[in-house]
Specification:
The complex is a heterotrimer. By secondary structure, chain A is α/β, with parallel strands linked by helices. Chain A contains seven helices and 15 strands. Chain B has 18 helices and eight strands. The chains are: A alpha/beta, B alpha/beta, C alpha/beta. Bound molecules: flavin-adenine dinucleotide and iron/sulfur cluster (2 copies).
Chain lengths: 263, 386, 335
C-alpha cells in the first residue's frame, strides 16, 4: 500500500469563555482572549498521526489565520506533524464558510500530493461544522463527516465509521477524501519536547501565493454577513433556585428541560 | 492490576536509556526486598507490586515493568527504609519518562498535560477562573515589600473542597497582620508534570516560572500544598532570599513570634495524618503539631503509623489523575486507622490528602469522622466569631 | 464576490429538506415544517418540502399533514440511504432548476453533511445551527440566530445576494407541529437522473446504538451517594428523557451502578445538552465531567452543596419526592 499523504486543517481559536461582546460597540471583543488550537482539530491531528504510524506517509498541517497562529501550529509539529502551512493575509479576514473552504482547498492543492484531508468536526468559535464538506466540494472528492474511526481497506478505499442520528454507519469512500473527525474520539498525544526544539518553521502563504482572485476571499467573498452580535449568557452558571410546592418545582423543571430537548 | 508476565530483554540501546535515565541509581540495590515489604500497595493488592523486582529488572536490562510503574505514589516510605539509600521514586519517574517515549503512558495523562499547557492547571479549568477561590476576599497582587507571596497552587485554586483551605489560610494570615499578595496569573508549579515523568516539559515550565517569580521580587513564598513546596525546594533554582515554606511552617513561626494565637477553646479529640511530601520528604512533622497544640482544649492522639512511618493517602505521584479502584485506596486504611483512635476529626495539611481521605470516609460511610485541614481548625479557634 | 448560482429576483418560495430514515421523516424535518409554515404565512409564500429517497410516499403525505403546500419527491433506489454524492447531486439539480429563495435543513449529522456540500455547490451562504429564524423587517431576508464561542455569544446572520439562503437548525429547537390530515397540498414526483458511478460512498454497515455510552448522551440523569442505593427514579427519569444514567464515583464504588456510568476526572467526560445531577455534592473531581453540559440541574437537600455553584437550575430538596413529581409531570404532559 502506498504511503498516505495527510493534510490536517486546523484553526487557532480564542478560548470561548474569554470572548465577550462589547456592549457599547456591539462587536466581538476577543483581544484579551487567550488562544488555543480548536479542540476537535487536536483529535484530527491525533487521528492523522495514528494513520501515519499505521500506513506510513506524511502529515501536514494547514491553517488560515493571522500571523500569531504560527506558534500554535508549532504545537502540532511538536505532536509529530511533518510540515505546517499558514495561509495568512488581510484578504483572508472576515471569511464565512464559503471563502474559508475555498482558500483551504487552494492551500491543499498548493501543498500538492495528498490522499486524505482531516478536519475537526467544527470550530469552537464559529461552530458551523460546514467547512470540511465545503473543502470536499471545492476539491471534488468524496467526504466522510463526523468520523470516529478510519482505516484503509485492501482495495485502497478508506473505511470510515461515522456518526449518524442514533447510531453510526460504516462506509467505504474512494480516496482522495475529506474527513471531519468527531470531538473526543481519541486522546491527543502530548508534545514531544525534542520535536518541539527541532520542528521546521511554518511556511506562510498569502493570497497571491495561492493565485486566487481576491474577490473570492475573506469578507468580500462571503455571501453571509453578521447583522447583530450580543452576549448570550455569562460564562457563569445561572444559579436559579426554584421555589414553590413539589408540583410547581416539577413543572418549572420540566419547562427548563423542554426548552432544550425534545423527547 | 498485576505485573506484566511477559518479560522481554532490553537491547543495549534501551538499556543505556534506562541507566542514563535513572543515572545508575538502581546500581546499589542488593535486592534485600525491604522496599517491597513496606510498600503500602502490599496492603491493598493481593498480588502487590514488587518494587524490588522492578529495580531488578532495571538492573538486569529487562523490560516488562508495564503498568506497575504508574502505581507508585512516590510516598517515599521504601526510600526511608532502604539500607542502600536507593532513590526508588526517582527510578520510577525515570521509567515513566521512558514509557512516554514508548507511547505507553496511561490514558488520561496526556489530557492532564494539555490542560496545563492550554489552561495553566491540571484540573482542566479555565484560566480566567484562577482567582475564583478568593471571591470577596479582596486580595491584592504581590508587591515587593510584602512579607510573603501566597502561592495557592492549582488544587486549592480550583478544587471546590480545597478552596476552603486557601480561604482559611487567608483569614489566619490576616489575623496575624501579615502583608501578602498573590500572583495575578499564578502559574502551575509543574508538580503533576514531574510526577508523570515529563522531565523535558517540566524544565521548560520551571524555567519560565522561576524567571517570573524572580522578576516579581519574590523571596518568602508560602504554599498551600506540600507538593508545590517540594517543587519549589527541589526543582526550582534558588535565588537571593528565595525561601519557599509550607504554610504550617510559616504559621508556626507566627505562633512563636506571638503574632498568631488561638483564643477560642475547641474541646475536641483530633488525630493528624502526616502528608508524605511534608513529613518524609521535608521533615516537617512538628510545625503542624505545634499549631494543633496551641489550640486550647484540643487533644491530639497519634495514628498507629505517624511521622516517618506514616501511611500515604494514595494521592501523590500523579495518582490524582489515575483511577485507583475501590478497595485499593490507601486512604481507606488511613480512615479506618483514624476511626480506631477515637478521634472526632482527622486533620491533615495537604489538599490531595484531604480529597482522598474525605472521599474514603464517604465510601466507608464514616461521616462521623470529619476530615479537615489544619487551617480550617485553626480558623475556628481564632475566637473572634469567624 | 463569488458569483451566485441565480439572482435573488429569480428566486421563489421557502423549501425544507425532508430528511428521512427508512421512509419515515426525521423529527427535525417536521419541526422545520412547523416553523416553515409560520415563516411562509408571514410573507404569503409557498412552503415546499424536498424529499429524496426510495418508497417515501408516506413521508410526503406526512409532510403535507404537517404544513407543506407542496412536496417535491425524487425517488430512486440509489437514494434509499443517504450518501453525500447522491443527495448533493440530485438536490442541486432540482434546486438549480426550481430556484427556491430559502432552504432549511436539519442539523443532524447527515443534514450537516449535505448542507455544507450543497452550499458550496450552489455557491451560496449557509447559516449553520440556528437557534432562531425570522424575516428581517424591510428586506424580507432570512435572519438566522446562531450561537458561537461555546454558547457565550449570539449573532444574527443573513445572506444578502446569494440564493438560496440556506440555514440548518438543530433537532429540538422548534416545537413539533400538530398533524392535520385535512391540510391540502400537492405531491410532485420529479425524474431522477442519477448514475451509480456518481456515488463515491458505499455503505457497509449501519448500527443503532444500544448499551451505555454516556459520552454521547444528550441528556444525563446522574445520581450520587444521595440516592442511597436506589437508582430506580434516576433510571426512570433518564428513560423518559431519552437519556443515559450517570453516577458519581462514590455511587459506583458502593456498587450501586456500573463503572461505565462514572462521570468525572477519572470517569467519563460528558457533553450533554442537559445534565440532572441528583444527590451529588459537586466535588471538582465530579464536576469536570459535566462542565460542558448545556444546562445543569442540581437536586440536593443540602443548600450548601457546592454543586449549586455550578448549576443553572437549583432545587434544594429531597431528591426522591422531586424526581417522583417530575416523572409524574413529564408523563402527564407527554407530547
Ligand atoms: C483521585 C480521585 C479521583 C476521583 N475521581 C472522581 C470521578 O471521576 N468522579 C466522581 O464523581 N468522583 C471522583 N472522586 C471523588 C470525589 O472527590 C467525591 O468524593 C465524589 O464525587 C462524591 O460523590 P457524591 O457527590 O455522590 O457523594 P457526596 O459528596 O457524599 O454527596 C452526596 C450528596 O447527596 C446529598 N443528598 C443526600 N441525601 C439526599 C437526598 N435524599 N436528596 C437530595 N440530596 C441528598 C448530600 O447533601 C450530598 O451533597 C475522585 C476522588 C479522588 C481522590
Ligand atoms: S530496599 Fe533498597 S536495597 Fe533493598 S531491594 Fe529495595 S531498593 Fe534494593
Ligand atoms: S514510594 Fe511508596 S508507593 Fe512508591 S514504591 Fe515506595 S513505598 Fe511503594
Amino acid at each position: 500500500m502506498k504511503p498516505l499523504g495527510i493534510i490536517v486543517c486546523v484553526k487557532v481559536v480564542p478560548k470561548p469563555e474569554e470572548v465577550s461582546v462589547n456592549p457599547e460597540t456591539r462587536t466581538l471583543d476577543r483581544a484579551k482572549a487567550r488562544s488555543e488550537l480548536n479542540p476537535p482539530d487536536m483529535n484530527a491531528i491525533e487521528m492523522a498521526l495514528a494513520l501515519r504510524e499505521r500506513y506510513g506517509g506524511s502529515v501536514s498541517l494547514l491553517s488560515m489565520g493571522p500571523p500569531f497562529a504560527a506558534p500554535y501550529l508549532q504545537v502540532g509539529l511538536a505532536m509529530g506533524a511533518d510540515h505546517a502551512y499558514l495561509l495568512s493575509d488581510r484578504l483572508f479576514g472576515g471569511a464565512d464558510t464559503l471563502p474559508t473552504s475555498f482558500a483551504l482547498a487552494r492551500g491543499i492543492q498548493k501543498i500538492g500530493e495528498w490522499d486524505l484531508v482531516l478536519c475537526g468536526e467544527e470550530s469552537s468559535d464559529g461552530a458551523t461544522g460546514q467547512v470540511p464538506a465545503g473543502i470536499a466540494e471545492w476539491l471534488d472528492c468524496s467526504q466522510a463527516t463526523y468520523a470516529m474511526d478510519l482505516a484503509l481497506l485492501p482495495d485502497g478505499r478508506l473505511r470510515a465509521e461515522r456518526e449518524i442520528r442514533g447510531g453510526h454507519e460504516v462506509i467505504a469512500v474512494s480516496l482522495p477524501a475529506v474527513v471531519s473527525v468527531k470531538l473526543g474520539v481519541n486522546e491527543p498525544r502530548f508534545m514531544d519536547m525534542e520535536l518541539r526544539r527541532t520542528a521546521p518553521a511554518v511556511t506562510v502563504w498569502n493570497a497571491s501565493d495561492l493565485g486566487v482572485d481576491p474577490a473570492s476571499l475573506g469578507f468580500e467573498g462571503s455571501p453571509t454577513v453578521v447583522g447583530a452580535v450580543w452576549q448570550a449568557k455569562s460564562p457563569e452558571r445561572r444559579r436559579e433556585f426554584l421555589d414553590g410546592t413539589l408540583q410547581e418545582k416539577a413543572r418549572l423543571l420540566a419547562e427548563r428541560i423542554r426548552a432544550l430537548v425534545s423527547f | 492490576m498485576s505485573e506484566s508476565a511477559s518479560v522481554c530483554v532490553l537491547d543495549d540501546v534501551a538499556w543505556q536509556e534506562v541507566t542514563a535515565a535513572t543515572m545508575g541509581a538502581a546500581a546499589p540495590c542488593f535486592q534485600c526486598g525491604v522496599c517491597t515489604a513496606v510498600c503500602p500497595w502490599g496492603l491493598v493488592q493481593k498480588e502487590p507490586v514488587s518494587i524490588r523486582r522492578l529495580i531488578r529488572m532495571a538492573q538486569l536490562r529487562v523490560d516488562g515493568w508495564g503498568e506497575a510503574i504508574w502505581l507508585c505514589t512516590t510516598c517515599g516510605l521504601c526510600e526511608a527504609r532502604c539500607p542502600r539509600g536507593v532513590p526508588v521514586s526517582e527510578i520510577i519517574l525515570a521509567l515513566r519518562r521512558l514509557a512516554w517515549e514508548r507511547r505507553a503512558a496511561p490514558k488520561g495523562l496526556p489530557t492532564m498535560l494539555w490542560a496545563i499547557h492550554w489552561d495553566g492547571n491540571p484540573w482542566d479549568q479555565p484560566p480566567s477562573q484562577r482567582q475564583a477561590w478568593a471571591k470577596g476576599l479582596d486580595l491584592k497582587p504581590f508587591a515587593v515589600g510584602d512579607d510573603l507571596l501566597l502561592y495557592v497552587g492549582c488544587t486549592a485554586a480550583y478544587d471546590r473542597r480545597s478552596q476552603r483551605i486557601a480561604r482559611s489560610l487567608v483569614t489566619l494570615l490576616r489575623s496575624a497582620g501579615v502583608s501578602f499578595g498573590i500572583l495575578p496569573d499564578e502559574p502551575c508549579c509543574g508538580e503533576s508534570v514531574r510526577m508523570v515523568g515529563q522531565e523535558a516539559y517540566l524544565a521548560e515550565l520551571v524555567e519560565g516560572n522561576a524567571r517570573r517569580f524572580k522578576e516579581a521580587g519574590v523571596r518568602t513564598l508560602v504554599t498551600v500544598s506540600p507538593h508545590c513546596l517540594d517543587m519549589f525546594r527541589t526543582q526550582y533554582p534558588s535565588w537571593d532570599g528565595f525561601r519557599p515554606l509550607h504554610y504550617t511552617e510559616y504559621l508556626a513561626e507566627l505562633l512563636d513570634g506571638g503574632r498568631l494565637s488561638f483564643a477560642r477553646e475547641l474541646p475536641v479529640t483530633v488525630t493528624y495524618h502526616d502528608p508524605c511530601y511534608l513529613g518524609r520528604r521535608h521533615g516537617i512533622y512538628d510545625p503542624p503539631r505545634k499549631l494543633l497544640a496551641a489550640i486550647p482544649g484540643l487533644t491530639l492522639v497519634e495514628l498507629p503509623s505517624s511521622r516517618e512511618d506514616a501511611l500515604c493517602c494514595g494521592g501523590g505521584g500523579g495518582r490524582m489523575w489515575l483511577e485507583t479502584h475501590a478497595g485499593e485506596r490507601f486512604a481507606d486504611l488511613r480512615v479506618r486507622e483514624a476511626q480506631g483512635t477515637g478521634a472526632e476529626w482527622l486533620v491533615t495539611s495537604c489538599p490531595f490528602c484531604i480529597l482522598c481521605l474525605e472521599d474514603s470516609a464517604k465510601v466507608l460511610g464514616s461521616e462521623q469522622l470529619k476530615v479537615v485541614d489544619v487551617t480550617e481548625l485553626a480558623v475556628r479557634a481564632l475566637g473572634d466569631g469567624r | 464576490m463569488i458569483p451566485p448560482a441565480y439572482a435573488p429576483d429569480e428566486a421563489r418560495g421557502l423549501w425544507v429538506f425532508l430528511e428521512q430514515e427508512g421512509g419515515q421523516l426525521e423529527g427535525v424535518a417536521l419541526e422545520l415544517l412547523g416553523k416553515g409554515r409560520e415563516l411562509a404565512r408571514a410573507r404569503g409564500i409557498l412552503l415546499t418540502g424536498l424529499l429524496l429517497g426510495h418508497g417515501v410516499e408516506a413521508g410526503a403525505r406526512q409532510a403535507i399533514a404537517h404544513g407543506a403546500d407542496h412536496v417535491v419527491v425524487a425517488e430512486d433506489p440509489l437514494l434509499a440511504a443517504y450518501t453525500t454524492d447522491a443527495y448533493t447531486n440530485v438536490s442541486a439539480r432540482i434546486i438549480l432548476e426550481r430556484k427556491p429563495e430559502t432552504l432549511l435543513l436539519g442539523a443532524t449529522p447527515n443534514g450537516r453533511d449535505l448542507a455544507g456540500r450543497l452550499a458550496v455547490r450552489l455557491r451560496t451562504g449557509l447559516t449553520a445551527d440556528c437557534t432562531g429564524l425570522a424575516w428581517e423587517e424591510g428586506t424580507g431576508l432570512l435572519l438566522g440566530e446562531v450561537t458561537g464561542f461555546g454558547g457565550g455569544v449570539m449573532a444574527s446572520i443573513k445572506c444578502a445576494r446569494h440564493r438560496p439562503q440556506m440555514a440548518t437548525v438543530r433537532p429540538g429547537i422548534f416545537p413539533l407541529p400538530p398533524s392535520d390530515p385535512d391540510h391540502a397540498g400537492r405531491i410532485e414526483s420529479v425524474a431522477v437522473s442519477l448514475e451509480a458511478g456518481e456515488i463515491r460512498t458505499q455503505i457497509l454497515e449501519r448500527v443503532r446504538h444500544a448499551g451505555v455510552d454516556i459520552t454521547r448522551a444528550s441528556v444525563i440523569v446522574a445520581g450520587g451517594r444521595g440516592v442511597k442505593g436506589d437508582f430506580g427514579p434516576v433510571t426512570e427519569l433518564a428513560r423518559l428523557l431519552g437519556g443515559e444514567v450517570g453516577a458519581s464515583r462514590v455511587a459506583c464504588d458502593l456498587g450501586w451502578i456500573g463503572r461505565d456510568h462514572q462521570i468525572g476526572q477519572t470517569g467519563f467526560v460528558t457533553r450533554p445538552k442537559v445534565a440532572l445531577v441528583c444527590g451529588i455534592s459537586g466535588a471538582t473531581q465530579f464536576s469536570v465531567g459535566v462542565k460542558d453540559a448545556g444546562l445543569i440541574v442540581a437536586i440536593n437537600s443540602d443548600p450548601e452543596a457546592p454543586i449549586f455553584e455550578e448549576a443553572d437550575v437549583c432545587v434544594v430538596d429531597d431528591l426522591f419526592p422531586v424526581l417522583e413529581a417530575l416523572i409524574a409531570e413529564l408523563k402527564r404532559r407527554r407530547p
